[in-house]
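tmp note - Chaperone for protein-folding within the ER, fungal-domain-containing protein
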Amino acid sequence: MYLSVLLVAAIGLASSASAQDIVYDSIHNFTAITGTWSSGSQHVVPGPGFANPAQETFQYPNTTGVGYSFSDDGWYEIARYRFASNATDPNCIIGTVVWAHGHYDLVANGSIILTPVGDGYQQVQAACAATSNFIQNYNFTELFVSWRIFEDPTFGPKLHLFQFDGSPVAPLFQVSTQPNMLPKQVLRNVTAQVVTTTSAGLVSTNTLAASSRKKRSGAAELQRPVGIVAGLVALAMLSTLL
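out:
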C-alpha cells in the first residue's frame, strides 16, 4: 500500500513538472539552438564533409568530438567520432564513428527529443573483437532532459546538452548560425538488411551494401589521433593499477 502511494506521488510530480513551460530568457537561451555546433577543437562537424550515407563511408576528422546541427524546420543531424579505452587490456581500444539525422522536438518541459528517420549508421573498430571493423545501422531516439546556451567570452555561444540521466554532453560551440546538413530525406537504402549473431551472442544488423563491402575488403581503418590514443592507453593502464 505504501509503495503504491509513493508511485502515485512520483507520477503526479512528473506530470506537474512536464506541464511547466520552459522559459526562454537570456540566461537559458542566449541565442537560438538552430545552427551548427561542435565540441572541443570543433573539427567534428555534420554534413557532407563528414559522412556519405549512400556509400556508407566517413571522412575522419583530425580530432575526436561530437557535432550537432539543428534547422528551423525541425531537422537535426549528428556526427560523432570517439575512442574508448579498455581497463582490462590497454591495447583493446574501441573506436566509433556515428552519423544520423531526423526530427527534433523542443518539449515544453525543457527537454529535447531526437527521432531518427532510420538511415543512420556507424563504424565500429575493436581490435580485440572477433569482427574488428564493421559498419552497422545506428538509429536510436535520444532524449536530452535539458539544455542551456550561454555566451562564452572567448568562443561565443556555447550549448550545453544534458542526457536522459542528467550527465552532460561535452560543451558545444557554435560553428555556424546555419545548419550544416546533408539533404533532409532518407539517404540510405535500409529496406534490405542482414542480421548476424556472433558466438558471444552479439547481434549485428547491417545493410546488404555494408555486408557486401565487409566481405570484400572491410571498412576503412579509423585514423586514431596519436595524442588521443596515447592518453587512452595510459588511462587504461592506470585503471588496472588502482
